[in-house]
């Protein structure tokens, strides 16, 4: 998603340059405008992040550090400028200071985290107030044995962040948070240097799923009385095992490929158990090529691609959707998925495709473009992908808050608006995989969400079993 910051207009290439003397305005990029057109109060576009710390930060110091971090990344310090339907563009207005205090400390209690999480999913920070981000520091013990814990020295805490996705995405906010951690704790929070990935041998690759192809399957609904808003379930899982690298240092597939396969198996198994449709699964996957340092462009910076699963999997469908998927069938699916994702990663294009670019060209007034965009979105709903998998990968920043400690776990969840109604977001820290399953309550109730999470966990285990099977061959 396009990331345009103030410095792009005045200091080319800079993410931390000095601010212009006069207040600046930045036109909405493509992704921001489409998100603004499609805003729906019943399913707000919030990105939610949870960071677990073993200690508790000092309130005054944290507020000061977060404020200073926003000043260092001024594209995060924005509000929507007043507009009218006949104007040609929406614009971001960059502010010199926050309009309101973005950090709050809710009262502690046994249900404090649950309440803060529900607020993060349902209460979107307004675009008219800078910054469109809210950071809540939550303390108070939660349920034992699950992922809702705060059991570090001094009780620990959770940094719970809600982002208006029209303005920012999760990786942008993590970059700002890493700067805040460095300012708070005085310790280096530079991104870890990524290990070089050996170039994998070229293999014949099936064509990836296309947006213009056949209608993908929908996740079978579980609720007879649709409710408003989203539900979310967080899981702390082992990173799935992969086959050993060969003599050239290459592996046949990545953890991201395993997550794609696990998501595909989850949907297929769920629909089989519910008697749902069996059309091909198509998964939308965000791709982010931005640098991770201080110069990272802040905003919405990923492009969306679709990974299709269809005819090639038909012969293995029974083996793949069994209670215990056949390791050989899963291994074949992993190899095909790796070929598809390699092809997608080697291509480039507009973030939302040509259609998104055309819809946001400033030829017609924004009010007219908004009506057209919403109409086309409704018309295209049957061809929208089945679900979205957003794999952040290894969190690149230590998120070390000094006396409050270093992050022990980080979860993110992407919006789950209909017609998809289901998203899977994953990240890894400390050798663990932190997965968030988020669903629209117009599609699934909370019991169904928990059941889907269990199916996803078993499906991910199946990709590890496939890796073991491949290693034994």
Count of individual helical segments: 11
Uncertain residue segments = 1-22, 142-154, 198-212
Mean pLDDT: 85
Strand sequence of the main sheet, in spatial order? 8-14-13-11-9-10
| Span between termini | 42 Å
- What is the general shape? globular
Provide the helix percentage: 25-40%
Radius of gyration: 22 Å
| Beta strands, count | 14
Which class of the largest domain in CATH terms?
Alpha Beta
Main pleated sheet:
6 strands, mixed
- CATH-defined architecture of the largest domain: 2-Layer Sandwich
Q: How many domains, as an integer? A: 2
The CATH superfamily of the largest domain is identified as Chloramphenicol acetyltransferase-like domain
CATH topology of the largest domain: Chloramphenicol Acetyltransferase
Strand content: 15-25%
**Secondary-structure-derived class:** alpha+beta
Order of helices and strands: HEHEHEEEHEEHEHEEHHHHEEEEH
Q: Any overview of this molecule?
A:
This protein is of the alpha+beta class and 473 residues long. The chain folds into two domains: 23-185, Chloramphenicol acetyltransferase-like domain (Chloramphenicol Acetyltransferase), CATH 3.30.559; 230-394 and 415-472, Chloramphenicol Acetyltransferase (2-Layer Sandwich), CATH 3.30.559.10. Helices cover 31% and strands 19% of the residues. It contains eleven helices and 14 strands. It has a six-stranded mixed β-sheet with strand order 8-14-13-11-9-10, with helices on both faces. Strands 5-6-7-2-12 form a five-stranded mixed β-sheet. Strand 5 (103-104), helix 4 and strand 6 form a beta-alpha-beta unit. Helix 6 packs across helix 11. It is globular.
């Amino acid at each position: 998603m396009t990331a345009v910051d103030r410095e792009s207009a005045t200091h080319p290439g800079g993410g931390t340059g000095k601010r212009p003397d006069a207040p600046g305005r930045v036109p909405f990029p493509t992704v921001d405008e489409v998100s603004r057109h499609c805003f729906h109060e019943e399913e707000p576009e919030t990105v939610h992040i949870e960071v677990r710390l073993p200690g508790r930060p000092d309130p005054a110091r944290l507020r000061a550090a977060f404020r200073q971090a926003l000043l260092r990344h001024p594209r995060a310090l924005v509000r929507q400028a007043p507009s009218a339907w006949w104007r040609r563009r929406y614009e971001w207005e960059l502010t010199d200071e926050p309009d309101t205090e973005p950090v709050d400390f809710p009262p502690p209690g046994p249900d404090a985290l649950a309440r803060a999480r529900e607020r993060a999913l349902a209460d979107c920070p307004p675009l008219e107030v800078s910054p469109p981000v809210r950071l809540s520091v939550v303390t108070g013990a939660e349920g034992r044995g699950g992922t809702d814990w705060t059991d570090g020295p001094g009780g620990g805490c959770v940094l719970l962040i809600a982002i208006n996705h029209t303005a920012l995405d999760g990786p942008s906010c993590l970059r700002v948070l890493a700067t805040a951690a460095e300012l708070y704790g005085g310790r280096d929070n530079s991104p870890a240097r990524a290990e070089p990935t050996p170039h994998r041998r070229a293999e014949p690759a099936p064509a990836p799923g296309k947006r213009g192809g056949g209608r993908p399957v929908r996740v079978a609904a579980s609720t007879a009385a649709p409710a408003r808003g989203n539900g979310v379930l967080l899981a702390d899982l082992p990173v799935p095992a992969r086959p050993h690298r060969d003599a050239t240092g290459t592996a046949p597939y990545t953890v991201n490929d395993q997550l794609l396969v696990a998501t595909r198996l989850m949907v297929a198994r769920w629909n089989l158990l519910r008697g749902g449709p069996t059309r091909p699964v198509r998964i939308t996957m965000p791709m982010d090529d931005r640098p991770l340092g201080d110069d990272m462009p802040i905003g919405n910076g990923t492009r969306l691609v679709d990974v299709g699963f269809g005819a090639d999997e038909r012969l293995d469908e029974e083996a793949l959707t069994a209670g215990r998927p056949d390791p050989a069938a899963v291994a074949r699916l992993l190899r095909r998925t790796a070929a598809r994702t390699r092809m997608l990663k080697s291509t480039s294009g507009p973030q939302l495709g040509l259609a998104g670019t055309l819809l946001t060209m400033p030829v017609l007034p924004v009010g007219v473009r908004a009506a057209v965009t919403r109409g086309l979105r409704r018309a295209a709903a049957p061809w929208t992908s089945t679900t979205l998998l957003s794999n952040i990968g290894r969190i690149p920043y230590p998120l070390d808050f000094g006396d409050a400690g270093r992050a022990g776990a980080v979860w993110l969840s992407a919006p789950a608006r209909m017609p998809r109604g289901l998203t899977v977001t994953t990240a890894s820290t400390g050798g663990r995989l932190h997965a968030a399953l988020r669903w629209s309550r117009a599609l699934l109730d909370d019991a169904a969400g928990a059941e889907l999470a269990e199916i996803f966990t078993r499906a991910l285990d199946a990709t590890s079993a496939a890796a073991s099977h491949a290693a034994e061959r």
